[in-house]
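Hi C.,

You asked whether I'd gotten around to modeling the 411-residue construct. I have! Everything is below, sequence then structure, no commentary in between.
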Amino acid sequence: MIQLRDYQERISTSAAALLREKRICYLSMECRTGKSLTALATAKKLGVKSVLFITKIKAKKSVEDDFRALNPNYELEVINYESVHKCNGKYDLVVCDEAHTLGAYPKPSQRAKAVKKIAKGKPVLYLSGTPSPESYSQLYHQFWICDYSPFAAYTTFYKWANDFVLKRQRMVNGYMINDYSTADKHKIDELTATIFVSFSQEDAGFSTNIVEHTLTVPMKQETAIYFRQLQKDRVISLNGRTVLGDTPAKLLSKLHQLSSGTVIAEDGTHLILDTSKAEYIRRMFAGKKVAIFYTYQSEFDLLKNAFPNWTESPEEFQTSTDKVFISQVRKAREGVRLDSADALIFFSFEFSYLSYEQGRNRLVSKERKDAAEVYFLCGDFGIETEILNAVHGKQDFTLSYYGKALKNRPR
């Protein structure tokens, strides 16, 4: 049987007490501090008989392993968010891992609607290292799925926003839309502070530092030419196939793809144009155990060819000596442990601050004592430097940011 850390004992005791009193609790514990095990211990102390644990698909095995190690006296069903609609069991507690993914607004996501249905009348335990990564408005629909929400008096986000949000208008793709992102933190904290239990890596005694490196990779001259031609003309022809950037969002996506050497043509063909980044990784990280994050499917195809000893399984990677872990960052940024790696390499990176922040934490653990080395590969002509600047500033790389960043680029 696994031994809980002292802080996990304390937190699980506090969380169980909150669930008995309020039937709602939010464990805001930073990455790698052991949220899942703490949640399972909370359920044990609560004395429930059946628990539904909703998480990301890549984290399911880790949760099941923790459950077997803890060996509590209750039944557990672990399911990913996309399959919640299939649940038909009777549960005494619902655990929502990475709960911030329920926070879409102003309208609830299909995911939130499905969880609300299964959570009806049940206590809910939330887990996330980043409860509101972009806006406090992301808390409304997280709590909305629970009948015991501190915002239960507000039946819709719009009614809630009248009291808790400074509404603005902004231009998106030529249209004025309402912007609900500026929520009143103080007023929200007044209603929610008592249901949060917060815990940081520093509180847990983590000694690992994340050391970031930005590496500029010389790409093929032809790829740079394609990039600049698409940026100027909004259309290029590659191997007889057309690549269009006929809307701002589409142009941004195609330029992003070309920055790492791949692109998807109009007919759906995945084109690999430039393997410079993969060759760079092979040279620079020879003899090291590395994990690689990518963004687009074409990049996965490129990387699989470059590293035949690849794996998508974090468990296989952790115990191996020669495997290269390759995964889309969005799939592996949460609930995955990669701390046996010598280095984590972002072959490319998303426009999302959340993917940046949570992705780089995959190397961190209490057991790791040496620095967590994280590398960001930027082509020598693309838009990746601007994306990195945005996420370093805790912003998403939006169309608006893109317009400003590319304003002075040569055409």
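If it helps when you're writing up: The first strand starts at residue 24 and ends at 29.

Thanks,
B.
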